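Title: Comparing notes on inverse folding

I've been comparing how different people in this forum approach sequence design from structure. To keep things fair, I'm posting one structure and asking everyone to reply with a full sequence. Here's the target:
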């Protein structure tokens, strides 16, 4: 639903009744991912899409029925030989679609309006809705803000809300939308409750400095992890969109000057691949003073020692230098650009999640770490 935030916020402001169909689960090949939505107002106006056209007509009818009856529904659309002439996905996948009416007099509408307003303004928030569970929980919602403050309730025990908040915080940190199943009492026991958690958050940024072959592989790894990836290099002959077609941005500028022009948050990963002092030192001198998640620099151990000496001469102390990951990446024995990119990506994930980077086999470390503590 949050992917239609601009239009739905306007509908809320205008007092319209509408129904929203949201993809809550995808199996196999499907045109849209969880969170994709289609909405229909009382006049029959349609916005959005859940399938790229395959089942839109049937979903439209479900929305109209929900508006008339005031009750929602959970429908599954798929494809099989025996129902080839029925409504389904021609791509062969299966999608589950949650249809929910949103009327002007619904008690939960103000909370949905707040979530839509936050998403429309590009604010960080997570909306939790009950997909399946006891009837008394249907239609309930909870909104988690950027500061971890929750508004609303799912209508069950307090522990259910606390569990929902923890699950929402994890998906919000990753900027992802998806479903989770918990017990009605907030544990993994009891009657199952399926929650849809929709995240509204700008993608975390990965800044890759140095338009080299290793950078192209790292761009692909960064995109795979969900980062908004920028490649920056002062040399226009190398920093071209043709060499880095998968990057979100390719910038021609001196690295330190570009860094100074950016507003970065604590999720940002910065990777220096140039191993050239005239680029590296001014850039790292600034980067290591910023409150960002990860700063790594490529180079041999000898290059690293020489770089540290120059950074100390520039006024950096032990605290700042201790944040530098250099030589960059985990020890995977990497040789190729792709293997090196994997080692860098693995170190970024470990830093983000509080992992140790050691093999899980035979280790006594937790498999899943507390993200907030990390």
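Reply #1:
Here's my take.
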């Amino acid at each position: 639903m949050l992917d239609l935030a601009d239009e739905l916020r306007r509908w809320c402001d205008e007092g319209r009744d509408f129904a929203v169909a949201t993809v809550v689960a995808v199996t196999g090949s499907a045109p849209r991912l969880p969170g994709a939505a289609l909405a229909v107002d009382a006049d029959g106006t349609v916005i959005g899409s859940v399938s790229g056209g395959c089942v839109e007509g049937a979903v439209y009818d479900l929305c109209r029925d929900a508006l008339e009856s005031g009750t929602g529904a959970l429908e599954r659309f798929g494809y099989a030989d025996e129902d080839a002439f029925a409504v389904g996905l021609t791509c062969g996948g299966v999608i589950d679609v949650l249809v929910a009416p949103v009327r002007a007099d619904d008690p939960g509408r103000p909370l949905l309006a707040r979530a839509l307003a936050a998403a429309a303004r590009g604010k960080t928030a997570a909306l939790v809705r009950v997909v399946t569970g006891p009837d008394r929980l249907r239609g309930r919602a909870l909104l988690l803000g950027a500061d971890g403050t929750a508004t609303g309730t799912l209508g069950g025990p307090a522990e259910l809300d606390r569990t929902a908040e923890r699950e929402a915080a994890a998906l919000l940190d990753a900027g992802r939308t998806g479903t989770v199943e918990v017990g009605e009492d907030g544990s993994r026991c009891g009657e199952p409750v399926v929650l849809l958690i929709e995240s509204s958050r700008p993608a975390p940024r990965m800044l890759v400095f140095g338009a080299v072959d290793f950078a192209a592989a790292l761009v692909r790894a960064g995109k795979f992890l969900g980062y908004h990836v920028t490649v920056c290099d002062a040399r226009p002959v190398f920093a071209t969109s043709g060499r880095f077609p998968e990057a979100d941005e390719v910038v021609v500028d001196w690295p330190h000057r570009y860094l100074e022009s950016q507003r970065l948050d604590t999720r940002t990963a910065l990777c220096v691949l140039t191993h050239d002092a005239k680029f590296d030192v001014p850039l790292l001198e600034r980067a290591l003073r910023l409150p960002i998640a990860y700063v790594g620099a490529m180079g041999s151990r000898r290059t690293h020692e020489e770089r540290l000496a120059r950074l100390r001469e520039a006024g950096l102390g032990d605290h700042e230098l201790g944040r530098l990951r250099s030589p960059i990446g985990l020890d995977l024995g990497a040789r190729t650009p792709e293997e090196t990119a994997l080692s860098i990506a693995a170190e970024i994930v470990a830093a983000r999640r509080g992992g140790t980077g050691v093999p899980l086999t035979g280790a006594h470390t937790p498999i899943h770490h507390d993200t907030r503590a990390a």
